[in-house]
Specification:
- There is one protein chain.
- 50% of the residues lie in helices and 12% in strands.
- With 444 residues, the chain is of the alpha+beta class.
- Strands 1, 2, 3, 4, 5, 6, 7, 8 and 9 form a nine-stranded mixed β-sheet that branches.
- Helix 7 packs antiparallel against helix 8 and helix 7 runs parallel beside helix 9.
- The longest helix is centred in the middle third of the chain and has 21 residues.
- The relative contact order is 0.07.
């Protein structure tokens, strides 16, 4: 509790001027942001309570000197900032900060703090007005990164959401450029790229940019590793990347850092349940009876390859190449160029999030792999018994261990239904989803 002792000492000896009050408020935020440098993760459940107690001590000291301050606007800013240190909306913070900007409209930090208050209150448009107004007075990293967050929340306000997401990335980049050692700016840039990942139909380049930004946040700021939001957002991205081990560890760590937050353990349980059901279905080959399995295997024909079997297949670069039919067991991890696999659907598995659409593919040798399809329309799917050909399959072998549970299976990732051949035909354009954001970064 080193920070707490330091704060109490300063409170006892602090003078009436705003400089000493500023020091008190700075120490209050340092206590909050560096909490886990002096506490173990097992104390996470106490953090919000401890921060609230420290805030009350600072406010008591501020109230004593309310009439002594020569700069009323600056005093109100510091009071509002202290009241705004907790995660919850504070009407008193809003009142103090609104008075501060009214007395001195050039107080950029007051505008930023007031914007954060509106943010917590759910008044996103008002928050945007505050951050934009602050930038008119002075370009600063806090307004830029907060504006980045706000832009991604305006989809319910009739805004062009895709345009807002691209602009939010731009604002976050500017914030990072102003201070490349600020972990919060890097974290918010990661969130902006996370939203862009979904807008751009899960573009892998965007996911890598997001992961790089999160990694940079932890590299330049040791407190970033104690941010449960960062761990949950990154885990969500890792799940879409099919790094299930990393996703489970991220959800678990986020839950440990904020035990009162229900979302991380819920996501962890949902993923564990998905993996449990999936491995059971892959192992049992969809629980299909032996006689039917034999029939499905023997019914596969070269004609089921459709355009993948007659030399008409075009690579993403537009090149026409012949594909070699291989069994699932011959696939190597990663992209298998100039190869096609063919099988019958033996099960399908959906989740609450609906993405990806997962089904089991049984080939002529009797091997069964999971196939995970992304960017599909909500109405799209395959039925048990359908024949499916997958050109140049991207295969991954999974070996996951988490909290006493183990999962092992092989899967094929398909970025769009348009890459498949189902019952000898390529699915129509309406099988692919329109680009939408299915996920909102947490803490925003």
């Amino acid at each position: 509790m080193a920070d707490q002792g330091k704060a109490e000492s300063s409170i006892e000896h602090g003078g009436a001027d705003n400089q000493n009050i500023q020091e008190l408020v700075n120490q209050l935020y340092h206590f909050r942001d560096h909490y886990f440098e002096n506490h173990g993760v097992e104390d996470a459940w106490r953090k919000q309570q401890d921060v609230a107690q420290e805030m009350e001590k600072v406010i008591q000291q501020l109230v004593k000197h309310e009439g002594c301050s020569k700069n009323k606007a600056q005093y109100l800013l510091l009071k509002g900032k202290a009241l705004n240190v907790t995660v919850d909306y504070s009407p008193k913070a809003e009142e103090a900060l609104a008075k501060a900007v009214k007395l001195d409209p050039t107080l950029v930090e007051a505008w930023n703090q007031l914007g954060e208050v509106y943010w917590k209150k759910g008044q996103v448009v008002d928050a945007k007005t505050c951050f934009s107004g602050a930038l008119k007075h002075c370009k600063n990293k806090v307004s830029l990164r907060n504006l980045s967050m706000v832009l991604r929340q305006l989809r319910d306000q009739g805004e062009d959401y895709s345009k807002n997401v691209f602009e939010s990335v731009n604002q976050a980049k500017q914030a990072v450029q102003m201070d490349i050692k600020d972990g919060t700016s890097w974290y918010i840039l990661g969130n902006a790229y996370l939203s862009l990942f979904f807008v751009t139909k899960q573009n892998p380049k965007m996911s890598q940019q997001a992961l790089n930004a999160y990694g940079q946040a932890e590299k330049v700021d040791k407190t970033a590793s104690s941010n449960p939001d960062l761990h949950l957002n990154r885990a969500t991205l890792l799940k879409y990347e099919e790094d299930f081990q990393g996703a489970l560890e991220g959800f678990s760590h986020a839950a440990a850092l904020d035990p009162a937050w229900e979302e991380p353990p819920l996501r962890e349980r949902q993923l564990l349940d998905f993996l449990d059901r999936l491995t059971a279905l892959v192992t049992s080959k969809g629980k299909v009876k032996a006689k039917k399995l034999q029939h499905l295997q023997s019914s596969l024909r070269p004609a089921d390859l459709g355009p993948c079997g007659d030399g008409r297949y075009q690579t993403p670069k537009g090149e026409k190449i012949p594909l070699e039919l291989q069994p699932l067991s011959a696939l190597k991890p990663g992209m298998n160029a100039a190869v096609v696999v063919l099988g019958k659907v033996v099960f399908s598995l959906t989740t609450e999030e609906r993405v990806p659409f997962t089904f089991g593919l049984l080939d002529s040798e009797g091997s069964c792999y999971a196939v995970m399809v992304y960017n599909m329309a909500e109405s799209w799917g395959v039925l048990i018994g359908d024949s499916v050909a997958i050109p140049e399959p991207n295969m991954k072998q999974h070996h996951i261990q988490h909290k006493g549970k183990s999962f092992s299976f092989s899967s094929i990732r398909v970025e769009t239904p348009l890459s498949l051949v189902v019952n000898k035909k390529v699915p129509g354009p309406n099988s692919q989803a329109v680009a939408v954001v299915a996920y909102k970064p947490q803490s925003e």
